Amino acid sequence: MTLDFSTLLPYSGVIIEGLVTTLWLTVVTTFAGIALAIVVAYVRDLESGIMSRLLGGYVEVVRNTPFIVQLFFLFFGLPALGIPISAPVAALVAMVLNLGAYTAEILRAGIDSTARGQHEAARALGLSRLQSYRHVVLVPAFSRVYPSLISQCIIVMLGSAVVSQISVFDLTYAANFIQSRNFRGFEVYLVVTLIYLLLAVGMRRSFELVGRRLFAFRQGGSA
Amino acid sequence: MFAFTKHRFYRQALLALCCTVVTGLAAVSAQASDLATIEERGTLRVAVPQDFPPFGSVGTDLQPQGYDIDMAHYLADQMEVDLELVAVTSANRIPFLQTDKVDLVISSLGKNPERAAVIDFTDAYAPFFLGVFGTPEAAMIDDADGLSGKTIGVTRGSVEDMELSELAPSDTTVQRFEDNATTISAFLSGQVDYIATGNVVAAQIAERNAERAPTMVFRIKNSPCYIGLSQGNTALKDKVNALIEQAKQDGSLEAMSQKWFHTALPDDLSN
């Protein structure tokens, strides 16, 4: 068998369509997932009421069940309960919930490593609770766990391949689609693998760039 | 060691050659049973599937059951002979006929030129088609243009996927799923209101989910099943054709369709 990449040319539009879907799913998930994680970590760390317990339950459920099962539950389960949900929305919700739960735990590790006294000192100096949380707790916590955070976001991007199972037209769906048409599996998956690799490397680079700006205070310091 | 291996190889080759020749002779000498032989014997031997519901499967009582089995019973009853069911797979059903191990093959057999070169076919007796299926309330769709604006679930890479992608208008949304089970789930959960699939799969869904039984609204491709018999067996072929016609008239085929496919016979079979 010889490699013949020219058979992929008629399908370049399909690959681009898949790539665009994967990209927007990843970008929206990254922002929404981290935002969710901040809220969850905040509540779980500073409150101890019913809300904190509920969010703890959410984190445990998501972290201890397979992503594809969560996806199928949303896609097939919700309509059965009378809540209509389209395939891309189900995929997005599943990805955000997934990233949110994992990142909340990563963040908590960073938050726990900030001595409680610092928070209290900031409050004593007249910062409001939110101000103190933001500047004294959150930003240093982020800077400590930033490498884990990058990895988690990349894992979710790569894991998004699974959403092709519920007919979302992402990059993997495009690959499966082409492969079922021209039977050139090796060529298709080779190209798509390279695209995923570039995406992952690109994401890491962008994160690191943003990190240098955000955590400039650590430059030359302990980082 | 080497000599021994070589020796064994020749012996095996010789043995294989002998077997081939003997089997070949047996095949040539196998004289197809004609109608007179069957009546004299008092038994109709029919090849049926046992792994392809609703055409043929094994029931909870370990007896074969299905559309093809009912058809075999109908023919034997009408010919007033006993029935002997022979379970075959899709790969060996034609060899069983060629070597006169059975008189008829009633095994969801489709017609194609390769098969027609070696065996004969009667008239069509069972529906087999690919179609677009909707909910029980869905309206019929007359032509491919009627699919416009609809969202249709299909199993990626299947024949129905290829056919549907070919003929559906550009504003039809085709949602492709990984396998049949996921496509069916998408239909049953209400994620899609239409699916493209075969009538066999549709019948299996209908069997378990009467309230959302897939109803054919548009036929993509039709390839009904025929009864196979050995070539030149004219008397038997005429007899079976007459009985198929009779089964259409007396409602037996329709009843079998309702029983096994939970739907009426398509027009081309019901006359």
Automatic annotation (TrEMBL), chain A:
Start and end residues of each ABC transmembrane type-1 domain: 19-207
TM ranges: 20-43, 71-97, 149-174, 186-203
Superkingdom of this protein's organism: Bacteria
GO cellular component: ATP-binding cassette (ABC) transporter complex
InterPro entries named among the record's database cross-references: AA_ABC_transptr_permease_3TM (IPR010065), ArtM/GltK/GlnP/TcyL/YhdX-like (IPR043429), MetI-like (IPR000515), MetI-like_sf (IPR035906)
GO biological processes: amino acid transport
Name of the protein this chain belongs to: Amino acid ABC transporter membrane protein 1, PAAT family
Keyword Membrane found: yes
Organism placement in taxonomy: Bacteria, Pseudomonadati, Pseudomonadota, Gammaproteobacteria, Oceanospirillales
Membership in a protein family: Belongs to the binding-protein-dependent transport system permease family. HisMQ subfamily.
NCBIfam families: HEQRo_perm_3TM
Entry membrane topology: Multi-pass membrane protein
Molecular function, one GO term: transmembrane transporter activity
Intracellular or extracellular location(s): Cell inner membrane; Cell membrane
Automatic annotation (TrEMBL), chain B:
Leader sequence residues: 1-32
Alphabetized CDD domains for the sequence: PBP2_SMa0082_like (cd01072)
Domain of life according to the entry: Bacteria
Alphabetical list of Pfam families matching this protein: SBP_bac_3
Family in the record: Belongs to the bacterial solute-binding protein 3 family.
Residue ranges of domain Solute-binding protein family 3/N-terminal in the record: 43-264
Main location: other
Localization of this protein: Cell envelope
Descriptive protein name: Amino acid ABC transporter substrate-binding protein, PAAT family
SUPFAM superfamilies: Periplasmic binding protein-like II
GO cellular component: cell envelope
PROSITE patterns assigned to the protein according to its UniProt record, in alphabetical order: SBP_BACTERIAL_3 (PS01039)
Keyword list, A-Z: Signal
